[in-house]
Amino acid sequence: MLKISRIQPHQYRGALEVFLAGSMEIWQVGEDKMREWDEFVDFDDMQGYYLDPGGTFLVLTDNDRVVATGGLKVIDSTSCLMKRLWMYPQYRGKGWGRKICEELIAYARAGGWTRMELMIYSPKLQEPAYQLYLSLGFKPVRFEEPDTQEELLMEMEL
Questions:
Q1: 62 against 146, higher pLDDT
Q2: Could you give the CA distance from residue 93 to residue 130 in angstroms, rounded to a whole number?
Q3: If we measure between CA atoms, which residue out of 147, 34, 50 comes closest to residue 69?
Q4: Distances (CA, A) of 141 to 20, 114, 116, 131, 156
Q5: pLDDT tens per residue, range 93-114
Q6: pTM attached to this predicted model
Q7: Burial class (CB in 10 A: 0-12, 13-18, 19+), 99
Q8: Which residues of 116-131 are buried (b: 16+ CB within 10 A; e: fewer)?
Q9: Backbone angle region of 95, left / alpha / beta, with phi > 0 → left and psi within -120 to 50 → alpha
Q10: 20-41 confidence digits (pLDDT tens)
């Protein structure tokens, strides 16, 4: 049975594995190389990074196996950041990514945030995700790496 819920400590490694599968798909690198590029501060301390400051981290589970993730990190009293929206390929295209996003957006609105940001590595490589974010109301702001058209910051008013 598929279910979206707030992450529990026993699911932390499963959430990391979903992200690692996505990074292997996009960048063809494993955990050791990803740790050189990305400090994994959030995966190494979910409680301190997301939950204690007032954010949240959601998982989609299939019979208790984590198969998709999405987090909301607090930036300040008015802004938050949607992060780590990843999903195993066999669960894509079924509306689950949208449902996770919608739950994170609803959480942000209920928490009083008025602006949500997200970063997408490559709109070209991640076209379905990019289209999903546009359909939810996110607008492109700027590329952090304009020469390569990578690291696109997007935002929406809540």
A1: 62
A2: 13
A3: 50
A4: 27, 16, 12, 15, 10
A5: 999 999 999 999 999 999 999 9
A6: 0.94
A7: middle
A8: bbbebbbbeebeebbe
A9: left
A10: 999 899 889 888 888 888 878 9
